[in-house]
Amino acid sequence: MNTKKLSVAALLSSTMGFMTTALAFPEYVAPTGASGCTDCHLTVEGEGFKPGILDAAKGGLPGLKEFLHPTPVKVGDTKPVLLPVNEHWDVTVGGLPLVIPLLVSDAEYDIFAINVATPTNGLPVKGAVISQELSDAQSNLPVVNFKWQPTAAHANKTYTVNFTAQEKGAGRKLLSNTVTTTITVWPKRQKQVTNISQFKVQRAQWDNNHLNLTGSVIFKSGLTTAQRNAALKSLDLNMRTNSGAIVGSALNLTVDASGSWKKSVPLKASNVPCIIKLEYEGLNASSSVKLHPKVCVQ
Questions:
Q1: Total-model pTM
Q2: Which of 38, 43, 116, 263 could pair covalently with 47 via S-S, beta carbons 3.0-4.6 A apart?
């Protein structure tokens, strides 16, 4: 057997199993179109691997073929840009599914696919759905929705999720920037009163001895204005630190016609939490506190 082919075959068998040494398997040479040692190795003696080859091998033979014979990128093609999303999202088991809108900007108006990865938490997004491409009414950019309904097995856990957009089509393969967010899954709500379908906190910031909070609520469908107002009068916002300590006293919220609310709570520097957890009609939400003191309450 040709020495060069032996070296390449050894590489393929070793990377397939994520090892550094293995017996040679010549049947891997022809499918990948490898022509010599230095296609994949750093030297003609077969020492070391070229950057990227081990990652390519994780995609099996197709991944190695693409590494060895990359599809040419069309002249003038630019990477798609995935726009930022909120840093943190909350979802409740048994409640409304989480929906994260993902907007993509691409100078050539290429079609694209959304990749979802959870690098530090395994794969919590089993059952998640990526919608068909739509058009965002405000920006007129393409948008797809990441939709996920967690189960009881996901409750009381926080997951890190990475999103990327990748071009599709002949000569189009560029990958966008990575957008990272976290998702906290709360257990099924226990309260029987369910005037509110969803409760959100958009921002928490400490400034001038005040904790300033903004968020929104979504009412259960079918409620009249009178029923909404009556519900709000009997509801209080409860605040805790990440470890469960109570922050301040229960607060009543004023919600405008669109469901948005704001609250400014007097709070000394020594009592400011690093992360604030909020509970409203049995629904939970959390947020890191922006501009918190250097030493904050865990």
A1: 0.66
A2: 43
